[in-house]
């Protein structure tokens, strides 16, 4: 037996502790396997053990996973999807389209009303949004707001929605060579999940729900992100930021479980530090006595307060100009968008070469 146990964070991840204390990890997705270990000897042993039970092909050192290209760069790895982008551009007849500097223009408000698409164009729209979603999930977190906004209309898209979806694809063409660079920075002491949480209050004009956005880094490398419409209508920007903090912390708790599967630290040694640019929401989380201001807020969103009280999460204020999660909540001007995109590790490798 290979003596692996599945990770509590994901049943497709299997972990084994080696005699020397290092950890060997096997990632499984359908019929694809990826083995990570301290030495090549351990990798070979695991591979041979798997071959004894399964019919499989060894394709050597990893160069791509699920269509995501993996390259070794200085002090880390770069994840990119240039080939997939080329395929998508050809599929939707946009290989020669005019490029755009941002996915969604500042001031754009997507609404349900408009000229509905016919059956064929509806399928086209759904397929295009699905392709953009895959890019966003794997490497292109900068597409988060656009993908989140467009996906809400897949059931009944209009001509305007298709136009905006194609604009996002034009931005993808312009940024084909962007790669998510994972170059961990060595830190003293315990590992730390550093997050950024933001919200655009009442930004959705059809229902006035707010948009949340968050990003998490581990050892300085971006490892998780999200852009989603909130499930409630907030009565103030402070309240919308408070709700956004809760959504971010939920993801952070899962991330901590995942980190503990790979790291040898004690469970309480993974610190979570979450940055927000709204002091009022931070005060709400740290001051349970503000009953008048919080009594109407759904109980589930006070999860953030409990996590802070338990010491599981530390909240820190950050200036709005440095709030990297801003680009996941709304359209932003090109200079702001490019600045935050780079700070999150999305780098044009072709331009840097």
From TrEMBL:
Organism expressing this protein natively: Tilletia walkeri
Protein name: Reverse transcriptase Ty1/copia-type domain-containing protein
Family annotation (CDD domains): RNase_HI_RT_Ty1
InterPro entries: DNA/RNA_pol_sf, RVT_2
Top-level taxonomy: Eukaryota, Fungi, Dikarya, Basidiomycota, Ustilaginomycotina
Reverse transcriptase Ty1/copia-type domain mapped to chain residues: 2-104
Organism superkingdom: Eukaryota
């Amino acid at each position: 037996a290979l003596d692996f146990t599945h990770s509590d964070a994901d049943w497709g991840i299997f972990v084994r502790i080696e005699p020397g204390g290092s950890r060997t990890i096997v990632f499984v997705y359908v019929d694809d396997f990826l083995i990570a270990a301290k030495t090549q000897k351990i990798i070979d042993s695991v591979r041979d053990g798997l071959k004894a039970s399964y019919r499989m092909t060894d394709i050597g050192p990893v160069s791509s996973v699920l269509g995501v290209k993996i390259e070794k760069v200085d002090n880390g790895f770069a994840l990119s999807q240039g080939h997939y982008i080329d395929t998508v551009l050809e599929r939707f007849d946009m290989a020669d389209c005019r490029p755009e500097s941002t996915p969604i223009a500042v001031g754009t408000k997507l609404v349900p009303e408009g000229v509905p698409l016919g059956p064929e164009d509806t399928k086209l729209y759904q397929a295009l949004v699905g392709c953009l979603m895959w890019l966003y999930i794997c490497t292109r977190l900068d597409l988060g707001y656009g993908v989140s906004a467009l996906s809400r209309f897949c059931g009944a898209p209009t001509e305007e929605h298709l136009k905006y979806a194609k604009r996002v694809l034009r931005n993808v063409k312009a940024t084909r060579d962007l790669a998510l660079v994972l170059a961990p920075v060595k830190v003293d002491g315990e590992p730390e999940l550093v997050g950024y949480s933001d919200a655009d209050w009442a930004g959705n004009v059809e229902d006035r729900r707010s948009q949340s956005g968050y990003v998490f880094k581990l050892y300085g490398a971006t490892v998780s992100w999200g852009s989603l419409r909130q499930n409630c209508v907030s009565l103030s920007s402070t309240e919308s930021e408070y709700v956004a903090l809760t959504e971010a912390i939920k993801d952070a708790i899962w991330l901590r479980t995942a980190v503990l599967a790979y790291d040898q630290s004690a469970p309480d040694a993974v610190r979570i530090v979450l940055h927000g640019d709204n002091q009022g929401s931070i005060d709400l989380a740290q001051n349970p006595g503000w009953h008048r201001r919080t009594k109407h807020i759904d109980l589930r969103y006070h999860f953030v307060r409990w996590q802070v009280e338990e010491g599981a999460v530390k909240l820190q204020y950050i200036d709005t100009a440095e709030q990297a999660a801003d680009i996941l909540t709304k359209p932003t001007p090109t200079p702001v968008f490019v600045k935050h995109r780079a700070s999150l590790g999305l780098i044009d490798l072709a331009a840097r070469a």
